[in-house]
């Protein structure tokens, strides 16, 4: 069945989703043939590889939209100091602990700034399994304390303004029970108005092959435009229990330090700028905008190129905002850096990698990844899901083969350990791949999905590298970190060429539309992936793409063979 046909079927038969999901819950007791015959009309990866298909960009839609101004009530300050704002949750390495983050005080923009003192205010979280108004004698609230910091974005260039943040707090709660609702307040209890209103969250399930998050959302390259707000509104209506944010959050670096209006292309609009500037108050606005969602479900992030934000002489310092604002389980997962880490959520092991730090096989990230993958027990966490910002498989002109070096260094390791799904962003469009390894269709390769269509100010990508006249030259698409490893294909229909002349066989389906994805893991071998387009937000049972991703652990047992292909390990399939 072709991908275009399958996406049409998926949209029209989505009403049978619950029926199919019920059948899959009975999977251990039903023959596989029965499930495939009565699958609710939703295709599975077992039906692939699919004939490549493209749904053309809908010209009735806007290719982009303006950024929402900071004066908008959703972005403007709602809490007066010392009350907390920008409250957000993040998972720890396992569901018995969780991070709570927030900001107090006011950020400053100007030439000569005095940073706030992070030691002048406490970092406390009061929490328990009952609301504060309930019987606190029988169920007393616990108090956890953490740390606080302030960061600055400094530009030693005439005419550029500096920024220093509010006080950013991170507190780790421990000793939690999995799959349990907790109520919490954060802030400083010694100050009048120093604690937030009470919020609540539900902890993720404990690692087990039969326990999974109800559903988790995936979104990339979000930004803060009108399209971005549509994406988040649509995502919130899908009621996820966790959010995976695959880089490029705010696009604060589309602005001068003096603010004004954001632009789709900074270098085009400001060719004489002494450095790639950033207007850090956009981060504060983004934190306030995300708070209603991020304060009740965990939001896990990885860095993108728009988080680099160079500052200082020659841009020597980078990633200051990303490193200060987000709590991630780096120490808990043994990485000791926020650029890459891992965590468990029920029967899923998540790996978040960094595309803008050393990914070579001789580096610290690769060494950590090897150790992390070796520790995964697939009897407990059958699924392994990886994510990083830059896609390795991409048929759009934008960022085509940009991170080919990273693929050559790391793809063999992920394949060896049977990683099931990979999520990336960076390209502002949607694309789902057939299972692939080393540019070759492979039933044991991961399902790669590009979902960088969150809605940012740089607009949607619509050109494909296989469109006439749209193939980038090998000198285009240089990465902002790492080397250039552009290559011509050595086999198949594109042999000897830099670009295919038709949609590549490893690209199953692609479309240029804004949206987000939802993954619902049903059991140890079946997971339902749904891509939701923004224009379908109010359409009943309407989806942009939908497929059951099926693991075949008995088929895909991998053993090293000690040979190499394209500069990376090659493995036998037993």
From TrEMBL:
UniProt KW Glycoprotein keyword: yes
Gene3D superfamilies membership: 3.60.21.10, Purple acid phosphatase-like, N-terminal
Protein name: Purple acid phosphatase
Domain Purple acid phosphatase C-terminal: 497-536
E.C. numbers: 3.1.3.2
Keyword DNA-binding found: no
Source species of the chain: Triticum aestivum
Domain Purple acid phosphatase N-terminal: from-to ranges: 84-203
Taxon lineage: Eukaryota, Viridiplantae, Streptophyta, Embryophyta, Tracheophyta
Ranges where the record places region Disordered: 61-83
A GO MF label: acid phosphatase activity
Entry keyword set: Glycoprotein, Hydrolase, Signal
Catalytic reactions of this protein: a phosphate monoester + H2O = an alcohol + phosphate
Coiled-coil blocks: none
Signal peptide from the UniProt entry: none
Family note: Belongs to the metallophosphoesterase superfamily. Purple acid phosphatase family.
Cited InterPro entries: Calcineurin-like_PHP, Metallo-depent_PP-like, MPP_PAP, PAPs-like, PAPs_C, PAPs_N, Purple_acid_Pase-like_N
Residue stretches making up the Calcineurin-like phosphoesterase domain: 215-430
Recorded superkingdom: Eukaryota
Pfam families, A to Z: Metallophos, Metallophos_C, Pur_ac_phosph_N
């Amino acid at each position: 069945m072709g991908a275009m046909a399958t996406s049409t079927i998926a949209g029209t038969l989505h009403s049978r989703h619950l029926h199919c999901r019920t059948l899959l819950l009975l999977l251990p007791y039903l023959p596989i043939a029965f499930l495939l015959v009565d699958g609710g009309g939703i295709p599975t990866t077992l039906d692939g590889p699919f004939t490549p298909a493209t749904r053309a960009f809908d010209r009735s839609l806007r290719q982009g939209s303006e950024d929402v101004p900071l004066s908008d009530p959703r972005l403007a300050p709602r809490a007066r100091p010392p009350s907390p704002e920008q409250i957000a949750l993040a998972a720890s390495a396992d569901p018995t602990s969780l991070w709570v983050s927030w900001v107090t005080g006011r950020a400053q923009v100007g030439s000569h700034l005095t940073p706030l003192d992070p030691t002048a205010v406490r970092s406390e979280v009061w929490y328990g399994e009952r609301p504060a108004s309930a019987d606190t004698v029988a169920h007393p609230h616990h108090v956890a304390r953490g740390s606080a910091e302030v960061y600055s974005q400094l530009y030693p260039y005439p005419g550029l303004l500096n920024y220093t943040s509010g006080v950013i707090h991170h507190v780790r709660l421990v000793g939690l029970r999995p799959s349990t609702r907790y109520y919490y307040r954060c802030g400083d209890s010694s100050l009048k108005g120093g604690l937030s209103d009470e919020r609540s969250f539900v902890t993720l399930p404990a690692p087990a092959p039969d326990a999974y998050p109800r559903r988790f959302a995936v979104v990339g390259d979000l930004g803060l435009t009108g399209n971005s707000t549509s994406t988040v509104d649509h995502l919130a209506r899908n009621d996820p229990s966790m959010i995976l944010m695959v880089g490029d959050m705010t696009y604060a670096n589309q602005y001068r330090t003096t603010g004004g209006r954001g632009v789709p292309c900074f270098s085009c609009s400001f060719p004489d700028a002494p450095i790639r500037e950033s207007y850090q108050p956009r981060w504060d606005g983004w934190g306030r905008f995300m708070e209603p969602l991020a304060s009740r479900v965990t939001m896990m992030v990885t860095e993108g190129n728009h988080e680099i934000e160079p500052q200082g002489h020659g841009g020597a310092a980078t990633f200051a905002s990303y490193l200060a604002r987000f709590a991630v389980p780096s120490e808990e997962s043994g990485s000791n850096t926020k650029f890459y880490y891992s965590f468990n959520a029920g029967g899923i092991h998540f790996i978040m990698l960094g595309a803008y730090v050393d990914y070579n096989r001789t580096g610290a990230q690769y060494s950590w990844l090897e150790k992390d993958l070796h520790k995964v027990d697939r009897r407990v966490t059958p699924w392994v899901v990886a994510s990083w910002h830059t896609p390795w498989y991409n048929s759009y002109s934008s960022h085509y083969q940009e991170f080919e070096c990273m693929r050559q260094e790391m793809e063999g390791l992920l394949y060896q350990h049977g990683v099931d799904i990979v999520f990336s962003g960076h390209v502002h469009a949607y694309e789902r791949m057939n299972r692939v390894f080393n540019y070759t269709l492979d039933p044991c390769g991961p399902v790669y999905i590009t979902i960088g269509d969150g809605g940012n100010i740089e607009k949607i990508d619509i050109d494909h590298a296989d469109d006439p006249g749209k193939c980038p030259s090998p000198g285009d698409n240089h990465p902002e970190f790492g080397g250039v490893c552009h290559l011509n294909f050595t086999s198949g229909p594109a042999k000897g060429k830099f670009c295919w002349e038709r949609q590549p066989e490893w690209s199953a389906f692609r479309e240029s539309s804004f949206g987000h994805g939802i993954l619902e893991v049903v059991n140890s071998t079946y997971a339902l992936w749904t891509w939701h387009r923004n224009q379908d937000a109010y359409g009943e049972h309407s989806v942009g793409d939908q497929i059951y991703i099926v693991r075949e652990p008995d088929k895909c047992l991998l053993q090293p063979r000690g040979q190499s292909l394209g500069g990376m390990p090659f493995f036998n399939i037993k």
